[in-house]
Amino acid sequence: MGVVPLDQMHTYIGTETGRSEWFTIDQDRIDRFAEVTEDRQWIHIDPDAAASGPFGATIAHGFLTLSLVSYLSAATTIAPSGAMMMINYGSDRVRFLNPVTVGSRIRLISTLKDVTDRGGGQILITSSTVIEIEGEEKPAMVADLLTLAVMQPT
């Protein structure tokens, strides 16, 4: 994560702020996510049945892909200098555009979309995020990521 002076944050709007490293989605991760979420649909956890299905292999849950945004965006988000902490504030406009088949590698690309001073030492940062699938033209997911920067008291 890059740190930028608060009074310069707005100058980065529309700028790509980073790309994560590639991250492999393996069957073990898909299976563990299925257990935690109780979503054991065959398209996720049954490689034999999924081989005959529409994607030719098991696929990651869309919410598994979304849940990795926190990890993948850690290196792509910019923060205002003087921030005491950065808090996940939510996501807007989440769309799952392309399934992530087992063994695929994904990465996140982040572009600063907006910076809003909410008062009380809170800065709302909106980033447009795209999760790409290596070798695929169509991304796995797009979303606006909302992060709340809580500033040090002055």
Structure description:
By secondary structure, the chain is of the alpha+beta class. It has one domain (2-151): Thiol Ester Dehydrase, Chain A, CATH 3.10.129. It is built from 5 helices and 8 strands; from the N terminus they run βββαααααβββββ. It has helices at residues 27-37, 42-45, 47-51, 62-67, 69-73, and strands spanning 2-4, 16-19, 23-24, 78-80, 83-96, 105-119, 122-133, 141-151. Strands 2, 3, 5, 6, 7 and 8 form a 6-stranded antiparallel sheet that branches. It is elongated.
Could you give a short description of this structure?
This protein is α+β, with helices and mostly antiparallel strands and 154 residues long. It has five helices and eight strands.
Average pLDDT metric: 96
How helix-rich are the residues, as a percent range?
Answer: 10-25%
Order of helices and strands: EEEHHHHHEEEEE
User: Can you tell me the CATH architecture?
Assistant: Roll
**Low-confidence parts:** none
The biggest sheet, with number of strands, parallel, antiparallel or mixed sense and barrel status, is:
6 strands, antiparallel
Overall form: elongated
Here the CATH topology equals Thiol Ester Dehydrase, Chain A
SS elements, strand count? 8
CATH H-level superfamily title = Hotdog Thioesterase
Query: What is the CA-atom radius of gyration, in angstroms?
Result: 18 Å
Give the class from helix and strand content and strand pairing: alpha+beta
Strand content: 35-45%
CATH class: Alpha Beta
Number of helices: 5
User: How far apart, in Å, are the first and last alpha carbons?
Assistant: 23 Å
Number of domains: 1
